[in-house]
């Protein structure tokens, strides 16, 4: 009967599989049979996204497995199942100790797949936390075991995962090497969807390197396979990527054709992150075509999806908290050994400390906002109230976008400045009505601590807003350049330049009628930055911040 239930699960007849496993759980006699039954039931709940029920079933399996002394493999598999569910719910303080237990059960260097899976899962957690050196160490451990076992597809997965880590921290050449090695294995094994995934990954690297011809070639190869396999999810991604490549190379008709196709799949499957990227690219195409009414339509659609994603992330966070609460209740109902109690107490302390730190950060940011509004009120006159309200809205948005990115990341301490700066500047440009502006953005792939990211975000917001409000009166070809680069001397360089009237206000620190520039100087002092203002066919502002730490590369 267990084989029948498993067959139903493999056929995606989840209701039938659930009913079969429930009947089986009442009929089984031995602890080994009950352990297997509840473990499979947990796998079914995990597969269908019912994480709380999965944890409950795995707990039952663990209870019955206690009598099966000496079966390390069974215990390791249960630990792994628990850990994967906790990881997907971002309950990392529970996932990591379980994975560590698996490693302790089988080390040193036993060549078994469950140990490789534990290494792989732990590596993916560290990648999500942007702890890239640890991630690569554990991925390499998994890769070594899989090479020894001769499981080629699992080797390819490990190679692919290592490529993703290198891509995340901006090491494109290393990422490309791992993706290409993974592709060779997948081609030998003939796994077409895996081949399509590797082709897309390689195309993404060439897109990062702005090698548009190769990016297009690999994306098209991936798209061809995905169409043959009717992979709608993959087609939503790859068509959107192709649309962006064609946009970057000025082939706007092709760009719109692929973006339209990708958007249909993304809307059908409710792939909100892909839909957001698609709408953003589509808006940019219409801006380039100077079809501003359509550009505005797609910008508004993009803004709505962005809001939905923010709400979804908040709901997910609340759901994760609910799972944590339910899990804690179940844990308290089970009699643990003293050592297990100590581990649980330590985990709770870790969560509490993290929450306190998060509340402290939010409190500090609200104090910053309060100080801004107080200082602004001193300069407020009735005639400029509307302008002040708009400016304050932009300042609030600049800080709010930081928190939005934090909700989207599993690691609460760092911000992807490339993604942040692009979104901030583009939203400001559009909100001030400059749909036809020639915008030049150059931002290195780097991650900053929130304590550095917040003042830098406000400085950028003020300088860009200043240009948009005052630089382009009656200007027929407005241009704006924003750069955030890392120097070889480990310094951070910010530049904001317009091609407007070229009259930057030279003010003494904290002694100006311009609140925005006073704020810039104050924040520059906080960052211990050198600041320059001068004319060069428009106003130029430059900041040089010394001795900063790029969190993505701090361990390399």
Molecular structure report:
- The protein is an alpha+beta fold and 556 residues long.
- It is 71% helix and 7% strand.
- A hairpin with a 5-residue loop joins strand 4 and strand 5.
- Helix 1 runs antiparallel to helix 2 and helix 13 packs antiparallel against helix 14.
- The longest helix has 42 residues.
- It is elongated.
What are the segments in which pLDDT stays under 50 over at least 5 consecutive residues?
Answer: 317-341, 507-511
SSE order: HHHHHHHHHHHHHHHHHHEHEEHEEHEE
* Radius of gyration, whole Å: 27 Å
- How many strands in all? 7
How large a portion of the residues is in β-strands, by DSSP E?
Answer: 5-15%
Q: Report helical residue fraction.
A: over 70%
SS-derived structural category: alpha+beta
- Strand order, biggest sheet? 2-4-5-7-6
- Overall, the morphology is elongated
H/I helix tally: 21
| Distance N to C terminus | 52 Å
Mean pLDDT: 79
Annotation keywords:
single chain, about 550 residues, alpha+beta, five-stranded mixed β-sheet, two-stranded antiparallel sheet, 21 helices, about 70% helix, about 5% strand, elongated
Blueprint (SSEs and pairs):
Elements: H1 2-10, H2 14-27, H3 31-47, H4 51-65, H5 72-88, H6 92-106, H7 113-128, H8 132-149, H9 152-168, H10 172-189, H11 192-208, H12 212-228, H13 232-248, H14 252-269, H15 272-288, H16 292-332, H17 338-379, H18 385-408, E1 414-416, H19 417-431, E2 438-443, E3 447-449, H20 450-470, E4 479-486, E5 492-498, H21 515-526, E6 529-535, E7 539-545
Parallel strand pairs: 2-4
Antiparallel strand pairs: 1-3, 4-5, 5-7, 6-7
Helix pairs in contact: 1-2, 2-3, 3-4, 4-5, 4-16, 5-6, 5-7, 6-7, 7-8, 8-9, 9-10, 10-11, 11-12, 11-13, 12-13, 13-14, 13-15, 14-15, 15-16, 17-18, 18-20, 19-20, 20-21
């Amino acid at each position: 009967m267990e084989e029948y239930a498993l067959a139903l699960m493999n056929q995606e007849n989840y209701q039938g599989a659930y009913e079969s496993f429930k009947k089986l759980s009442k009929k089984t006699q031995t602890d080994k049979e009950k352990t297997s039954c509840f473990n499979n039931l947990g796998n079914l709940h995990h597969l269908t996204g019912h994480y709380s029920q999965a944890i409950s079933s795995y707990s039952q399996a663990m209870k019955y497995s206690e009598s099966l002394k000496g079966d390390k493999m069974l215990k390791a598999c249960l630990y792994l199942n628990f850990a994967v569910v906790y990881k997907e719910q971002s309950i990392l303080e529970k996932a990591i100790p379980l994975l560590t237990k698996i490693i302790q059960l089988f080390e040193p260097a036993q060549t078994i797949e469950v140990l490789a899976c534990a290494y792989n899962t732990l590596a993916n957690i560290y990648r999500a936390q942007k702890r890239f050196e640890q991630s690569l160490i554990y991925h390499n451990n998994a890769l070594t075991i899989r090479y020894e076992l001769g499981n080629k597809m699992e080797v390819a997965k490990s190679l692919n995962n290592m490529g993703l880590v290198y891509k995340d921290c901006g090491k494109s050449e290393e990422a490309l090497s791992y993706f290409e090695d993974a592709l060779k294995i997948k081609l030998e094994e003939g796994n077409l969807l895996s081949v399509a995934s590797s082709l897309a990954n390689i195309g993404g690297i060439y897109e990062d390197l702005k090698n548009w011809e190769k990016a297009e070639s690999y994306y098209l190869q991936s798209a061809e396979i995905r169409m043959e396999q009717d992979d709608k999810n993959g087609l939503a991604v790859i068509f959107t990527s192709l649309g962006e490549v064609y946009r970057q190379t000025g082939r706007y008709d092709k760009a719109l054709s692929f973006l339209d196709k990708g958007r249909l799949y993304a809307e059908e499957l409710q792939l909100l992150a892909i839909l957001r990227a698609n709408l953003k690219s589509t808006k940019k195409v219409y801006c380039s075509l100077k079809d501003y009414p359509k550009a505005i339509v797609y910008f508004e659609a993009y803004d709505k999806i962005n809001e939905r994603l923010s709400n979804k992330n908040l709901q997910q966070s609340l759901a994760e908290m609910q799972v944590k609460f339910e899990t804690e209740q179940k844990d308290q109902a089970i009699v643990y050994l003293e050592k297990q109690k100590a581990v649980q107490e330590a985990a709770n302390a870790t969560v509490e400390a993290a929450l306190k730190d998060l509340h402290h950060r939010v409190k500090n940011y609200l104090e910053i906002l309060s100080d801004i509004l107080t200082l602004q009120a001193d300069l407020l006159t009735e005639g400029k109230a509307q302008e002040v309200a708009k400016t304050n809205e932009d300042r609030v948005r600049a800080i709010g976008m930081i928190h939005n990115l934090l909700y989207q990341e599993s690691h609460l301490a760092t911000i992807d400045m490339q993604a942040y700066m692009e979104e901030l500047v583009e939203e400001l440009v559009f909100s001030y009505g400059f749909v036809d502006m020639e915008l030049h953005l150059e931002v290195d792939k780097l991650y900053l601590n929130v304590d550095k990211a917040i003042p830098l975000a406000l400085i950028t917001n003020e300088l860009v807003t200043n240009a948009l409000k005052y630089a382009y009166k009656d200007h027929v070809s407005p241009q704006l350049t924003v750069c955030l680069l890392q120097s070889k001397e480990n310094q951070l360089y910010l530049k904001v330049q317009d091609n407007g009237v070229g009259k930057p206000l030279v003010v003494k620190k904290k002694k100006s009628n311009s609140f925005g520039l006073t704020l810039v100087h104050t924040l520059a002092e906080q960052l211990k930055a050198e600041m320059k203002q001068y004319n060069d066919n428009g106003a130029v502002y430059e900041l040089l911040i010394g001795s900063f730490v790029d969190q993505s590369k701090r361990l390399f």
